[in-house]
Design brief:
The protein is built from four helices and four strands; from the N terminus they run βαββαβαα. The chain has a four-stranded antiparallel beta sheet. Helix 1 runs antiparallel to helix 2. The radius of gyration is 26 Å and the shape is elongated.
């Protein structure tokens, strides 16, 4: 069966338990249609880049799915009917990612405060010695001539 990564965004005013119930409902649709959900990740309440249906934040959830295309079509149909789902995206992949997704690894890094080897805002590039400005040269030569 084909492999998919499915991400959906739920309204910000839902509780975590309601989002979990929605995920369980969508997973149930997939299993009823002969597929299986191999991994479920709740990414949390994230800020959106722009407002979607008057929401500035959304609960985000990832489902790794091994199911026929008809099962994903039914899940997407149910999400279109649900007022709680703001957006969804399904991508067919060659193989499912093992371990935590990139979003989960990013949140782990943010919690640790690990900024990597970047050093600062503009990196750790060495700019070398600072040479004097041309105005400084002109002032120095004028002072020497006097």
């Amino acid at each position: 069966m084909p492999l998919y990564e499915h991400v959906y965004m739920a309204r910000q005013d839902l509780s975590g338990q309601q989002v979990e119930e929605l995920t369980t409902q969508l997973s149930g649709v997939i299993t009823q249609m002969g597929g299986k959900v191999t991994k479920t990740e709740y990414w949390g309440l994230k800020s959106l880049s722009y407002r979607i249906n008057k929401n500035r934040k959304a609960h985000m959830t990832l489902l790794n799915v091994d199911a026929p295309a008809a099962a994903l079509n039914e899940v997407e149909r149910q999400e279109r009917l649900s007022e709680d789902v703001l957006r969804y995206l399904t991508i067919r992949v060659e193989e499912l990612e093992e371990g935590p997704s990139a979003m989960m690894r990013k949140s782990d890094r943010d919690e640790r405060g690990d900024r990597g080897d970047r050093g600062g805002r503009f990196g750790d590039r060495d700019r070398g010695e600072r040479r004097p400005r041309r105005d400084d040269d002109a002032i120095e030569t004028a002072a020497v001539e006097e």
